[in-house]
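Hey team,

Sharing the G protein-activated inward rectifier potassium channel 3 run so nobody has to redo it. Sequence (393 residues) first:
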Amino acid sequence: MAQENAAFSPAAEEPPRRRGRQRYVEKDGRCNVQHGNVRETYRYLTDLFTTLVDLQWRLSLLFFVLAYALTWLFFGAIWWLIAYGRGDLEHLEDTAWTPCVNNLNGFVAAFLFSIETETTIGYGHRVITDQCPEGIVLLLLQAILGSMVNAFMVGCMFVKISQPNKRAATLVFSSHAVVSLRDGRLCLMFRVGDLRSSHIVEASIRAKLIRSRQTLEGEFIPLHQTDLSVGFDTGDDRLFLVSPLVISHEIDAASPFWEASRRALERDDFEIVVILEGMVEATGMTCQARSSYLVDEVLWGHRFTSVLTLEDGFYEVDYASFHETFEVPTPSCSARELAEAAARLDAHLYWSIPSRLDEKVEEEGAGEGAGGEAGADKEQNGCLPPPESESKV
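Structure output:
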């Protein structure tokens, strides 16, 4: 019975697992946000060009085909109506009859003539005559509108093909972030790298802390964004990304992790979003790569393995070790407690050194004799010698 009670006692129960946080930004950079109940959909049509560029590839190709096919069908139907209205279809065998378009004997022929006109193919079998003013006007109108459709659709496809989104796929972030000491201060660090030999020009890095907070007035902000300093004041956020770099956020008094110890950090619930921006060297277009780190992806007391080695005449980067870390001695206290301990140590050293100098001077003075005038006139650790009147008395 005792064993059964122990097995079902609250102390023997497994601790409840913390529910996994829903990512705001996925590891591959996709923002995990969907827009719903958008009633003002007409706003998308006011910027039709951007709307078409943002469409998925299958929808863009469908719209591309439909734009040309519907235009050809529309003008083909008008050419057929002109031929039908003038009676050209009733005088196909009449050699004395001058039609609007030669050899246009049905809707299929009108559709083919519309394609030849808009694409400026001009096979020469179907030709407009000078006895059809309405056909001449329609020819000019289709030529102008066809050029506009070509410019619009080709421009959309060119911009969509040349988008630098795929360039961001070769910008990599470390799978984990680490917290360890750098120059005696706790720092939160992650690593970035570029897999291509063509570099990102004017690269810059930013970091955001995403977590819920409640204001003093009781307002709940579910996804509050806080900047994490990665060297904006010193210019360290502007990167020369030729080889992988370790980006460091110093946990100081301005950092939101100032009072977070290792245990408190593990119990916290947040997401760190990192954003790398720059221009593609080959095209000059702006590129942005994103990633994020959850609480369980922040390793306390770890440091990144070096990936850069010096070979014969060049530096080699080993990307097989890009995500690897190793443990290093790191205090589990918060950065604030570490700074206070360092301040107490500095204060102790500051007051202990003068006291030791005083003891040493007193020992030397006792060895020379208490009545020596030469010893009485000397300064002891910043103390002035006694006045002459007092010494004479």
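The chain has a mean pLDDT of 82.

Ping me if you want the raw files.
A.
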